[in-house]
């Protein structure tokens, strides 16, 4: 009912504010600190920008569509714009998650090619890849927006705008599969492939399990961004190198321990990202796919809406947890704000 504040509307508002803060903070750190501007972090920022676009455009229009006065039907122009915000940002969010997973797959399956592509540490190439995804999605939905704008208003839009665009069913179903379902399924399939690659390359041979050290020709003594000298291991994801220490193990080394030693924080980041997608994006997409086939499970809409809102919050948080450069930049920003004032 319009104008009535409920627990659900209050919860949605709080989650949207938290998502704006967390995603905006990650984008701010990328713009503020040079150490954060690495090729891999471009994909993380691109994901946060898609979340910010969803929060800045889709949520306000949805709120107005729900709370607008019901004395007159909504205008055709507003309904078309509302549907554009839905299909212009949600599939981009799915594709930006896919880009992160493809980046990790590339770095593990073809590390030489990955390093050569990012050898200049330039942000231009990953930025162009991210931009191409945005253009692909927007150009794909453009014919649907044009058809929707030229079609007469739906009979169901007497009070509120519908989320379903006007147009041929074959076009709507094809778009649902190509820009929603297919990239999400591909993302979920990439994780077991990466797990298999890491597991196969981290298996220890009998007789060579007493001590693990990186060869001297693959390490270098370089000062990290904190100014200290460490023995560094090479990285394939554009982050600053991470100090390496000798690892002592035996023939009973656990599978998880070998995976952690081989892949480091990047595998943990992908694991957290996959878990977040399964919890937040997958239920929502499953719900909208069921609606396409005429199925509408009772009470599922409220559940998937809540989970989807929480996913936008946890996306930047998992990068803060698992990506060293973001973590160090956040600590640096916190230390600057905690410096005591000097009085004359």
What layout of secondary structure does this protein have?
Blueprint: H1 7-32, H2 39-67, H3 76-109, H4 111-117, H5 124-150, H6 169-201, E1 211-212, E2 220-223, E3 229-233, E4 242-243, E5 247-248, H7 255-263, H8 265-292, H9 300-322, H10 324-337
Antiparallel strand pairs: 1-5, 2-3, 3-4
Question: Which whole number gives the mean pLDDT?
Answer: 78
Order of helices and strands: HHHHHHEEEEEHHHH
Question: Based on CA inertia axes, which overall geometry fits?
Answer: globular
Number of strands: 5
> How much β-strand is present in the residues?
under 5%
Main β sheet profile: 3 strands, antiparallel
Name the structural class. mainly alpha
- Taking pLDDT < 50 over at least 5 consecutive residues as the criterion, the unreliable ranges are 204-253
Query: Tally the helices: what do you get?
Result: 10
Compute the gyration radius: what is it? 23 Å
Helix content: 55-70%
User: Widest sheet: strand order?
Assistant: 2-3-4
Distance between the termini: 60 Å
Characterize the structure shown.
The chain is mainly alpha-helical. The chain contains ten helices and five strands; from the N terminus they run ααααααβββββαααα. Strands 2-3-4 form a three-stranded antiparallel sheet, with no helix packed on it. A two-stranded antiparallel ribbon has the order 1-5. Strand 2 and strand 3 form a beta hairpin.
Summarize the entry for a quick read.
The chain is mainly alpha-helical and 344 residues long. The chain has helices at residues 7-32, 39-67, 76-109, 111-117, 124-150, 169-201, 255-263, 265-292, 300-322, 324-337; strands at 211-212, 220-223, 229-233, 242-243, 247-248. It starts with 6 loop residues before the first helix and ends in a 7-residue tail after the last helix.
